[in-house]
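Lecture 7 notes: from sequence to structure.
We start with the chain below.
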Amino acid sequence: MTNGSIVRGSWSRRFMMAAIIQAVILLLIVSTAIAPYNSYAQDISMHDEDLTLIVNIEASRGHLMQALNNKSIGNDNGAIAHAGHPAAEHLDKIAPIIEKRNPELINELRDKLTRLPSKVPAISYEELRAEIDAIDALFENASNLISDENKGSVQFWFEVMKMLLEHTEEEYEEGVEEEGTVSNIIEYEDAQAFIVRAEHVFTTKVKDSISSDTSVVIERFFNDVKMAMDEKRSADRIKELVDGIMPVIPEFPINLMLILVGVVALTIMIGRVLMPIKATVYNGYSNR
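Predicted structure tokens for the same chain:
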């Protein structure tokens, strides 16, 4: 083997070693950057359960609001229908989640929700309000079972809003099949209730954590969609309004986005630090 071959081999190994060092450092940086997010990724089922729990609780609150509204005007049939929806449509979705976290709570909640419709005709408006207030207190206890991370996450509450808006579209489409005419009063009132609950989530959980410009846009949306519903505009018009606000509601997890931005920035920085090393190695090899 010639001296030239030995020298070229030596510098080739040094060049390869520099590349390996860069890759190892980058791997360590990426691993460190995503470490805080690992718990979130591993706990995605918990996140989904929390989302399912809150969305169905808020929808149930909407149904009970309409039960009370119908009772106030003497429409017991409407009140009975709305009072029965939480148990019929949402209880099966939230019961397994609550049962894992607080078995006593779900037993009491199940009992009150299933008994409520049969009570409606025989009780007064005030008595129905008391029944619903008691159920709402249980809903509040159930809401507090979600993780602390989600309780304080604007992204999480945006997701709740989005799902309620999607349910609003679905209910309204069933309630108003032709513009100007209510084809199914219960579904129409459900849609009105869901938009009210979505607005409540925005006002209490989101508004104070976003820019004033974004807040104004979302508030205008809620005013427009409620007015369109009151006017019994077409389902296509409601869909247009809801679809129009969706881009304002972020879908990409904020924490993950920040992590990815950080990783990209660190990658660039490491590349700039190691580039002179590789250049030196290369120049040294060329000079030989």
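Points to note: The chain has eleven helices and no strands. The radius of gyration is 29 Å.
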